[in-house]
Amino acid sequence: MTIRVLLVDDQPLLRTGFRLILEAEPDITVVGEAGNGSTAQDQSRALLPDVVLMDIRMPGVDGIDATRRIVRDAAPGAHVPRVLVLTTFDLDEYIVEALRAGASGFLLKDVPPDELVQAIRVVAAGDAIVAPSVTRRLLDKFATRLPSAHQQATPARVHRLTERELEVLRLIARGMSNAEIAAELVVSETTVKTHVGNVLTKLALRDRVQAVVLAYETGLITPGAIP
Predict the structure, then answer these.
(1) What's the pLDDT tens digit per position in 79-113?
(2) Cβ within 8 Å of residue 117, ≥6 positions away
(3) What pTM was computed for the model?
(4) Where is the Response regulatory domain (predicted)?
(5) CA 84 → CA 7, 44, 225, distances in Å?
């Protein structure tokens, strides 16, 4: 299966660089480019990409609003592109909002080419990119913008989880992969996949990224508590 990618960045040179990297892969094709969020929305609707590689800071409609529109505009049951957000990290203060808007993860703009390619494949397959070190630093940095456990009651649906599923959710929030969770809990990776699926289904979450944000919002994980 060929993964169809839409590149969204207001810098043409960056788009060209990404295109050269991605089109060198036999299973990836770049179907279009956009220099702002408004064009990205139109291109996404017309080209039906599998993955949108989305910059945050752009003139006019930014990456956050564009992500929200792309995810929101999809008709029920219709194809919904997966959005992979690009960030310079030190400058972008809106990554949490991007995740809430429907992004399936984020990458740093200086990501090595092989990691960029792998991230696109992972997202296209329906999973999410949650880089452990970056995720923890971002959520810690912007934690004051998230409700604390004292400010927001734990959603009723969290109580649907079993003790093991809660444990798995906490480990997901620490940025651990299925293999790492399996090693931590001394169970098989297949068992972990089952638990992760149950967590996402019971909490009505789209992917692991939303699980991370929910864990912080509900106080299951507290900012600064993870080494």
Answers:
(1) 789 999 887 765 556 667 777 788 888 888 888 89
(2) 21, 22, 25, 28
(3) 0.68
(4) 4-124
(5) 10, 13, 27
